[in-house]
Amino acid sequence: MATAPMALVAAVLSPSHGPRGFTSKAVVPPSNPRAAAVPHRRGRRSSSARCAISTVNSNGRLAEADRATAAVATVGLQDLQATPLLRRERHDEETITMIARVTVHTDSILQDPGKWSFGSIADILFRPNWLRLELVSSELDPKTGEEWEISSYAHNHGRHDDTEFTMVLEASFAVPVSFGPVGAVRVVNEHTREMEIGGITVFREGEESGSDAVTFHCNSWVHPVDKRTFFPLNSYLPSQTPEGVARLRKEELQAIRGDGQGERKSYERVYDYDVYNDLGDPDRDLDTKRPVLGGKDRPYPRRCRTGRGFTKNDPLSEKRSKEAFYVPRDEAFTERKNLTFKAKFALEALNALGQKIRTKDHKSLSFPSLAAIDAMYKDGFRNHPEKDDLDWWSSLIHELEEELGHFLQFEMPEIHDKDKFAWFRDEEFARETLAGMNPLSIQLVTEFPIFSKLDEATYGPADSLITKELIEEQINRVMTAEEAVKNKKLFMLDYHDMLLPYVHAVRELDNTTLYASRTLFFLTADGTLWPIAIELTRPKSKNKPQWRQVFTPGSDGSVTGSWLWQLAKAHVLAHDTGYHQLVSHWLRTHCCVEPYIIAANRQLSQMHPIFRLLHPHFRFTMEINAMARNLLISADGIIEGSFAPGKHCMDLSSAVYDKFWRFDMEALPADLIRRGMAVEGKDGKLELTIEDYPYANDGLLIWDAIKEWVSDYVAHYYPSASDIAGDEELQGWWTEVRTKGHADKQDEPWWPVLDSRDSLIQVLSTIIWVASAHHAAVNFGQPQGDAAAGVGVLLDTFPSQFQSTLALPVLDVLSTHSPGEEYIGTHADPAWLAEGKISSAFEKFRGRMMEIVAEIDDWNEDPERKIRHGAGVVPYVLLKPCYGDPAEKTTVMEMGIPNSISI
């Protein structure tokens, strides 16, 4: 049954190259379709206002700086039917013939062919009237003062685009010459199935590349119950909206906000908030019950509301669905990305199947040797996307062939290629705090002695056993401990106060243990860090006093002392890895960005310039977050099964959000200053405490470039501070981010106020930084972490074979660059080219990215920068912008910085 529809589509449509969306490669239009065009009006006051008309050339590219992403609105079909269209011809006025050419993506048929019958496919291909278009003037009718619409049906026009399954439809309109610039196109899908509209271009008959042509970049789904509105080209602040579409702008926002009621359906585009109350599944197993995250007891950012009912065994827990979690329809993966992601995930699951079958009854079984760990990896295998010159079917087959060729093996960490025993060395242990997968935890020691801030009555003595005498002994008395602090030579990984409250609870779990830890490093004369002490602590309990011990690198010269030091490092690495995944990665990027996305869709019209600036940085994030709630951070998910806190993982994440997360500290410069890793110089520029700190070195280049680009963008649309303060949509967005998206912190005094260009630039730059560069730095280094464990007792301390084969496939999938990925500095959203100054500003931004590539290459070849150059040292490329073809890069880490949290 599924084969026939696919064969029929393949016979009518052709495979593609080129980007999804409107291009002008369509076949030349036929004679006028049969449908008649009629004007419709709604009451409004009159106006003589006019707006600019965009131009496109014969290649579908804007001939001038006039291009934009379409905006979207939804109106129930019942509203359409309840208001009969006024059919009043203007016989007293000359008309011109306008053509609307529509690209419809039909690859959804191939994604779910079982739901399509021969009749339904024949219906879409040959039925004459299933897609109705209405052109809406940007002006009010000068004679009546009413909104002005002209309606017509689109008809099948042939084939289009060689890399995607698409079809082209065309509609013809008799438009009065006084109609004015087209301000919107309304689309009604009268088919029985939802359709994805790629792009729409409206032009005078015979003048496809003429100056009157208007392009709409839609890339959005239209469901049969919806009437959708797409806006063209120019971006407008609310006060500048052309009067002919002002009502539609407000209607669009109202339609997608929802009312907080009912269960959301997969085809809907409703954005609303909810707490994290869907991580457990108590109706299946009471042991999976998990506390609600979000609220007074456990503060947390909000997620997208799905509206499912509550479980029987826990009235606070939302039911889990066997199907994919709801996300607003336009936030979902494209078919190509979805199929590739599922194929990759399935193959990685097969990759681990053999090990899991062997160890499922012995989940605590350790690796028998280092060779057994090495056998899990394949030399020369690199996890990267297929080449873009393959069509999507060929690329999928290519991906399958590549993966099957490496069945039951994973990508070899690059550091392991360079130095097989790097994991064992203290130098690498210290280096990765500055250039590893979690370079966001190292901090300067500013006070000595070191004290805990936790209650001594509950946890035991607050002072540290890392004493002045111990420090001075470890640094060969080159200076006193006080001098080391004063001269900014002491640095620390401090997981003491964060982990100590969870130690006893975690120790009650099977086959796991936990300590709190402090790790002290000394900055040597050659600019590298050297670990000098690790303190592990177990808090006091009812029956036992506090236990704590300090370990140093072989201070007693014994073999036992050396292995105890390795064991202590193993515990620290477990803490650092868990913090990286739960906080640096999940909380600070995926989790905290979702409220910005929800608020933007609810409060910023899609013709708003700030929505169009941010939109590329929100691509696919809500979909990947929904998958995370389903598979990764849920009860018995990958995170709980792979990290020491177990079922307490998300509770710990909430505690960190409560005590440490601040929006104003998420910008890179502020974060570095807070951790003592930088100070602001007299010239306003940052001076790093450790000169060779790759994450900070490269990150500051990216941060400055982002901020300059955002500054140019904001200056164009907001000539004065009053424009910012008076922008009701912008202010509504930022208010909702604070009061709904991050409701548990809404009363904090540190929230920025959008009352000036500087404050707006800082807010926007911070969001773009977190969604792009911050995420890239903590995500794509995941498979490159420590590759091996130790021997003997040390092997028993590290993850079991079962845990490793559970975690490695997921890390492999999550660190894969997706087909069709959009990279910062290389992908220009069409809206950014809608204004000449914005187009020029982006070209400047693009050029700066290429300069940064050269600077990073120079630093990676500088022998004075020992953190990133030298024998056995991996160059730092996690924040290296994209250049050339990502598929040709040696490692996943140097493919570039994606615009968004899309994986």
UniProtKB/TrEMBL annotation:
Pathway field: Lipid metabolism; oxylipin biosynthesis
GO biological process: fatty acid biosynthetic process; oxylipin biosynthetic process
UniProt GO molecular function: dioxygenase activity; metal ion binding
Lipoxygenase domain location: 235-903
Stretches with biased composition (Basic and acidic residues): 284-300
Region (Disordered): 27-48, 284-316
Parts of the chain that traverse the membrane: none
Source species, domain of life: Eukaryota
One of the Pfam families matching this protein, by short name: PLAT
SMART domains recorded: LH2
Residue ranges of every copy of the PLAT domain listed in the record: 98-236
E.C. number: 1.13.11.-
The keyword Hydrolase is annotated on this UniProt entry: no
InterPro entries: LipOase, LipOase_C, LipOase_C_sf, LipOase_CS, LipOase_Fe_BS, LipOase_plant, Lipoxygenase_dom_3, PLAT/LH2_dom
Cofactor(s) annotated in UniProt: Fe cation
UniProt keyword annotation of Oxidoreductase present: yes
Family named by the database record: Belongs to the lipoxygenase family.
Job of this protein: Plant lipoxygenase may be involved in a number of diverse aspects of plant physiology including growth and development, pest resistance, and senescence or responses to wounding.
Protein name, as recorded: Lipoxygenase
Organism for this UniProt entry: Urochloa decumbens
